[in-house]
Amino acid sequence: MDTASDQCTTFSVDAYMRDCASRTVLDAIANKWTCLLVDALRAGPVRFGVLRRRLDGITQKSLTQTLRTLERDGMVIRTVYPTIPPRVEYELSELGMSVVSLMKGIKHWAEEHVPEIVAARAAFDRRATEEPVPISTPTPAG
Amino acid sequence: MDTASDQCTTFSVDAYMRDCASRTVLDAIANKWTCLLVDALRAGPVRFGVLRRRLDGITQKSLTQTLRTLERDGMVIRTVYPTIPPRVEYELSELGMSVVSLMKGIKHWAEEHVPEIVAARAAFDRRATEEPVPISTPTPAG
DNA sequence: CAGAATCCTCGACGATACTG
DNA sequence: CAGTATCGTCGAGGATTCTG
Predict the structure, then answer these.
(1) Interface contact flag, B11 A54, Cβ < 8 Å
(2) Which residues form the HTH hxlR-type domain (chains A, B) (predicted)?
């Protein structure tokens, strides 16, 4: 995507996997929980337990993992209050806020075009099911 | 993301997995080859073999699969010319063109912010490595 | 040429149990 | 409360072989 943005020549996979900025972003946000998590953090600092309840169905492991990854990516700030019992708060960094904007763009595109996608899938599956293999349909091609 | 876009209350995972438009889009384009493939199709109709050579490193299986998925999603149009040897051409539909726009937005955000992400990762990893577990470092907090 | 079919690996994610 | 540790599943994607 970066390698051949102007010209469509030959792609180098290795270079792509290393250098393509879009891949980095996609890999960072396309995970199962990342988008929901970022969304759940928009309103401000939240404690771990609250997040877990907010993202109904997430595992502690997945939540910890996703948060850790986002923290490593500089999108989430983790603050530990050394009290008993422990208390940890998570909030979006500036970069994290920017991710919200990015996701807003994706969401906008999605709401505009997902219906077409759904329709296309339905049509495709219908064709695949109904069409009992048109063996001899001599369509006089142009 | 859709379910709780205004209010951050409780998410229903099931509803999210079913209904969230953003998830549909992310799942559709975040695959390993999809972005590169769409990019490789931008210039116009291309034959299978050309695509395979253009996406250096892709397997026939992965290429076929990715193309089939994109076709099912209504983003790619597949045209078969019943000649011998067979000849199949792939091109972007209008929806596919729209995906290019979407990816352009993602790419823009990426080029703007990936450096920060990379830096954050480096800093995080450095901290994790160097810091030899500060067992008894009585830092007079505050 | 443009695939279909098969086998295999590997990482994401869930379930469960334990802890400071 | 906020995790860590361990095990198990499941699907994406690669490698290889075969075909109309």
Answers:
(1) yes
(2) 20-118
Domain positions in chain B: 1-30, 32-129
- State which amino acid sits at residue A47: R
DSSP track, A106-120: HHHHHHHHHHHHHHH
Instruction: Residue A25: list chain B partners with CB under 8 A.
Output: 106, 109-110, 113-114, 117
Q: Is CATH 3.40.30.10 the classification given to domain A32-129?
A: no
Query: Radius of gyration over alpha carbons of chain A, in Å?
Result: 22
Distance B17 CA to C4 C1' (A): 31
How many distinct helices (H) and strands (E) make up chain A? 6, 4
The H or E element spanning position A97 is helix A94-130
- The residue type at A5: S
Give, in Å, how far the C1' of C4 lies from the CA of A54.
Answer: 45
With residues binned 3-state (H G I as helix, E B as strand, rest as coil), the percentages for chain A, rounded to 5, are 55, 10, 30
Higher pLDDT: A107 or B15? It is A107
Instruction: Give the closest residue to A42 by CA, choosing from A86, A107, A110, A87.
Output: A107
Element (H, E) at A53: helix A48-54
For the whole model, what pTM was predicted?
A: 0.84
The residue among A18, A36, A34, A95 whose CA lies nearest residue A69 is A34
Query: For residues B19 and B13, is the Cβ–Cβ distance under 8 A?
Result: no
pLDDT at B92: 98
Separation CA A90–CA A75 (nearest Å)? 10
Closest Cβ opposite residue B73 in set A10, A74, A117:
A117
